[in-house]
Structures are given as C-alpha cells and as structure tokens.
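Go through this chain.

——
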Amino acid sequence: MSQWVVWLIIVILLALIEAMSINLTTVWFVASGICALGVSLLTDNYIIQFAVFVIVGVILLITTKPILVKHFNKSHPKTNADRVIGMTGIVTEKITKTNPGEVKVDGKRWTAEADRLIQKESLVRVTELNGVKLKVEKVKEEK
C-alpha cells in the first residue's frame, strides 16, 4: 500500500473523530495529516512524513487553539429565567434610577432596575437579567 494512501486513511479517521466530538480535539492533526500526505507524494522517507505530521500539528495546536476556543465558547448557559428577556410586564412598585422597584412579568414578581423613573402601572420591557434582578425599560405608548 502506498504511503499516501496510509496518510489519506489517517486524515479520514481523524476527520471522523473530529466530526463525532464537539471539543476541537483532532482538527489540527487533520490539517497536519494533509500536509504529511502532500509530503508523501514528494518523498518516500516515512520519518520526514511523520516529522511533518507532528511538527505541523503541534504548531497549529499551539497557535490556533486559544483563538478557536475563545471564538467558539462565547455563549453562557441559558436558564429558564432567561426567557423573560424581551417580555413585557407591569410595574407594581415605582422604579427610580437609584432605587429598584418591582415588576410582574410572566405571572411572577421580580425586583427591577431602570435607568430612569418609571411609575407604578407602567408597561415595561425586560432588557437584561442580572442575577435575580431585571433591567427594564418603559414601553413607548403608541398614539
């Protein structure tokens, strides 16, 4: 069996492992396997091919993993409480810029903060969830 076929099989196996995992485990060695496959077309020396595979894989791992991990791990775990973001509620206790008030959203009462005064009975929209406090803004009334 030709050496390029062996590298092709290695690349396919590593790609399958990467496709089955979500942790970016072998993507660098898929790329280095492709490089080694290219080198195998130029030389029959297996030591050179293997050296290219290892060196390119390690260089790619060291230089690109922090960037990819940072890029792909931006999300934070969602909770059931997150679903209130964007919902409309009603103010049950006046909210001022310096003192939180209370709103009723989705049938539950929440402590709420706002950047300006919002009177009792006003309609508000939830913009953020900070721990157990909602950040709200007054809903503009249509005329």
About this structure: Helices lie at 3-20, 27-40, 46-72.
